[in-house]
Design goal:
homotrimer, 217 residues, mainly alpha, 7 helices, 0% strand, globular, membrane (chains A, B, C), Gly_transporter (chains A, B, C), transmembrane helix (chains A, B, C)
Chain lengths: 217, 217, 217
Amino acid sequence: MSALTPVLQVLDLVGVFAFATSGALVAVRRDFDLVGMLVLAGVTALGGGIVRDLVIGAVPPAAFTEPGYVVVPAVAVLLTFVAHRLVERLGRAVLVLDAVGLGLFSVAGALKALAHGLGPVQAVVLGVVTAIGGGILRDVVAGEPPAVLRRDSELYAVPAALAATLAVIGDRLQLDEGWNAAVALAVGFVVRLLAVRFHWRAPRARRVRHGQGRDRA
Amino acid sequence: MSALTPVLQVLDLVGVFAFATSGALVAVRRDFDLVGMLVLAGVTALGGGIVRDLVIGAVPPAAFTEPGYVVVPAVAVLLTFVAHRLVERLGRAVLVLDAVGLGLFSVAGALKALAHGLGPVQAVVLGVVTAIGGGILRDVVAGEPPAVLRRDSELYAVPAALAATLAVIGDRLQLDEGWNAAVALAVGFVVRLLAVRFHWRAPRARRVRHGQGRDRA
Amino acid sequence: MSALTPVLQVLDLVGVFAFATSGALVAVRRDFDLVGMLVLAGVTALGGGIVRDLVIGAVPPAAFTEPGYVVVPAVAVLLTFVAHRLVERLGRAVLVLDAVGLGLFSVAGALKALAHGLGPVQAVVLGVVTAIGGGILRDVVAGEPPAVLRRDSELYAVPAALAATLAVIGDRLQLDEGWNAAVALAVGFVVRLLAVRFHWRAPRARRVRHGQGRDRA
């Protein structure tokens, strides 16, 4: 956490806002009520970080000690509640804010894991968990196949892994904490937006469907 | 825990019984076997409390130290196994017991969170998590949209939040522990039953469905 | 963990490999991409153990400290990625390796819980959670009803409970640690394979479907 300069702390709350908004929008789409919006927004924005903190033994998790982590999702839900059609139309802006959150969560998650004594590979894994865990939980609770795992989704975990890896390498090279985090975050952010723009996707196993015959001939 | 007088401890096990029964009934409805009944009953009755205890760092969670938390769900499953049609017909009685559990879990969860040093808002959140977490996990494992989040369900999280809030306020005012918990529980219980009786529901975002034209004109 | 002789450690990684492979295959079947394969493989192989370690307070969980728990699932995913049709054809072999994992995870889980001071019944429960938790999480994330809970699945949790119970009894009788674990594991393994061979299933509540009339007459 000491690596987070005030600028990074603001970006962190920007990410929380974007993640919470995406949770609230899914709740509206699934015909959930205001309680459902609050639960999905909280799970999306805070779920990945809570899992990370439980794993590294940082209890209570930051989600339950920093007031911003309660206030910002509540604001996101209220905004979405009163103006969700407007929020949906701002989809592109939310996508950009979400990419900020993706970059920051993966970097902050990896650095916090290192600070708690985890190895570099495990720190990268936890950085990715921080960044994508909330979205997976959101989709599981909403009863949808997790977007981040599907083959028709643009790269999401890959820029997160990239940002987390850069942050871990920079930490090992003892680069300046703030700059190291900022650069790693920026790379994750840019790669994510490029992936959306150019429809970059992760590879998938080539699959011969049952009943197509070719496989069975 | 010290706030729980013997009466409250009995009510706690009543709540565990009701929650476990609801899990076992969902398992029967989904064509799960006896193992599925045990898993769903355990998840429903104990899931919320386990999450709370992990978050506040009370490990092992009470679910793994108090024998009653193993015995009571097992009894609920056996009863449901041999006589689930009878149990389903007692739906109204289970609903009342469930409301006892709702009130007690939210109050006990909030007070336990306070005792572990969490702030008042976070304590209310954890009280609600204790009360509704198990039911959400039950529905997610069973592959159903969580009842508590849907717009066609009567208020459930709201009476839980109300009871937890009263308990936290009473704790701050240093009221007698037992009476404070009993009154907060009773309010949650009554509001829940009123919500069921009069079909009170949480508000939801007004939604214009895609393709209705009005929104796009 | 001290109960695990080198042989048992190898069997542990065999189990991790089998569980990870089953997760990767489900990911292919659900049209997930490489990220989805990694997530499902990791969740299946490590999810049960992570939950166990969080509950007993062994943080960071072994999944984040032992390099083999990162390397083996990654290898399983790569193999499945390049040759998943071959892997699917080896279904019977994977089933046998999975039964090794089932026996070992339940025994190791129960013994680790005992070593952390849990009671014998709770240790058996945690052994079963270690063995079946990952598969349940796999199916929940993939959006399928958990195989282990369905009535059309062969016994899976029952041999796990049997192996865990034997391990706990042996521990209480102060039998030799290595032999005690090996025998309990072997019993779980054999009972699981017999259950598959002879289609042994857990009982389920007899259910009269709504609308069949018989129940209502």
